[in-house]
Design brief:
Helices cover 51% and strands 12% of the residues. The chain is of the alpha/beta class. The chain has two domains: 170 residues, Rossmann fold (3-Layer(aba) Sandwich), CATH 3.40.50; 136 residues, N-(1-d-carboxylethyl)-l-norvaline Dehydrogenase, domain 2 (Orthogonal Bundle), CATH 1.10.1040. The chain has an eight-stranded mixed sheet with strand order 3-2-1-4-5-6-7-8, with helices on both faces. The radius of gyration is 19 Å and the shape is globular. The N and C termini lie far apart (43 Å). The structure holds 1,4-dihydronicotinamide adenine dinucleotide and 1,3-dihydroxyacetonephosphate. 1,4-dihydronicotinamide adenine dinucleotide binds next to helix 1 and helix 4. Its main location: cytoplasm. Pathway: Membrane lipid metabolism; glycerophospholipid metabolism. Belongs to the NAD-dependent glycerol-3-phosphate dehydrogenase family. InterPro entries: 6-PGluconate_DH-like_C_sf, 6PGD_dom2, G3P_DH_NAD-dep, G3P_DH_NAD-dep_C, G3P_DH_NAD-dep_N, NAD(P)-bd_dom_sf.
Length: 330
């Protein structure tokens, strides 16, 4: 029994946490939003904007920003993937026990190689994990533009109820049950967006980018199946939907990071220049380690790691991919 599903507490006041708080408010939920900076909380509560992350987008007055995590019926985690563990550790365990906790970060944890919901199980074994992923730029969600996402949980009835509690006029969650597939898709699409950006940054052409997208989809399917998820999940919003959005949109931070790599800039230089969060940078080596441990052929993940570490230039990497032994497409 997960009811009531009235109030929402969002942990993380960046672009995505603020957008999800706005979506929950538009769904009619009273929302608290945890931010780390008192001045930011003040701005959200009094001006109803979060300019550092969402420009002049006006936020719902029913979002209350706080600098300490508030208890609620529904908890939404929206800090970067590498910060989820420490954010959970900082919360009162009683806030999490028996409550639906929605993991919305898209990334795999460095060191442990864990998915976001595995981190939750580690940190709060009594919480009920759900994962939310799909094609959804924060500004689109916050501005009330039509968005559809996947919400996956272990119990179909609970997941449908939670989806209904978060659904609004412009935010449509589809209930699903393949947590593994949804999480791996969300994490890997960022790695492939780095690759697609690099293809464009290096001016390799639209044909190359589409070929990459299709082969990325095939590689992602092998990874999902090897990890115990379903390849069918990839036909949906969290798979094909988000892969195409992130790999083809200049709005994507991962794609932008990839463009800079494709132009020959180093990872260190891009980060030093103040690049926005690009989750694929941390996830790529984790994905490579997982592929190796599962014996999955993942040449694109390997290629992205070569670009990120500067161990080969783009021309050499492309030549290597194009001269792999010919194979059947299936
Ligand atoms: N921005 C977008 O359009 C979307 C982002 N996401 C995912 O959401 C996650 C977060 O991304 P964004 O919000 O866009 O990043 P962001 O860089 O805009 O904001 C991250 C926020 O998390 C806060 N934070 C970091 N560590 C924290 C901690 N330990 N406790 C509390 N707050 C902490 C930072 O202060 C910052 O406000 C990422 O995994 C991203 O892939 C998912 C869908 C869309
Ligand atoms: O996940 C996203 C859209 O679905 C956001 O992508 P970026 O993090 O690359 O901007």
């Amino acid at each position: 029994m997960i009811e009531p599903l009235e109030t929402v507490s969002v942990i993380g006041g960046g672009a995505w946490g603020t957008a999800l708080a706005q979506a929950a408010a538009m769904a009619g939920r009273p929302v608290s939003l945890l931010v780390r900076d008192a001045a930011q909380a003040e701005e959200i509560n009094h001006s109803h904007t979060n300019t550092a992350y969402l420009g002049d987008q006006v936020l719902s007055a029913s979002i209350i920003a706080t600098t300490t995590a508030q208890a609620a019926d529904i908890i939404i985690m929206a800090v970067p993937a590498q910060a989820t563990r420490s954010a959970l550790a900082a919360m009162d365990p009683a806030m999490l026990a028996g409550r639906p906790v929605v993991l919305s970060a898209k990334g795999l944890e460095t060191g442990t190689l864990q998915r976001q919901s595995e981190i939750l199980v580690d940190m709060a074994p009594d919480a009920i994990p759900f994962v939310l992923s799909g094609p959804s730029f924060a500004i689109d969600v916050a501005a009330g533009r039509p968005t559809a996402v996947t919400l996956a949980g272990d119990d179909a009835n609970q997941t449908s109820k939670l989806a209904a509690a978060l659904a609004g006029p412009s935010f449509r969650p589809y209930a699903a049950d393949d947590r593994i597939g949804v999480e791996i898709a969300g994490a890997l699409k960022n790695v492939y967006a780095l690759a697609c950006g690099a293809v464009d940054g290096a001016d390799l052409g639209a044909s190359a980018r589409s070929a990459l997208l299709a082969r990325a989809y095939a590689e992602m399917s092998r990874m999902v199946v090897a990890m115990g998820g379903s390849a069918m999940t990839l036909t949906g919003l969290a798979g094909l939907g988000d892969l195409t959005l992130t790999c083809t949109s200049t709005q994507s931070r991962n794609y932008q990071f990839g463009i800079a790599l494709g132009r020959g800039e180093s990872t260190e230089a891009i980060l030093a220049a103040g690049a926005k969060l690009a989750e694929g940078v941390a996830t790529a080596p984790v994905a490579a380690a997982l592929a190796a441990s599962l014996d999955v052929d993942a040449p694109l993940i390997a290629a992205v790691n070569q670009v990120l570490t500067g161990t080969a230039d783009i021309a050499t990497i492309v030549a290597g991919l194009m001269s792999r032994p010919l194979k059947r497409e299936d």
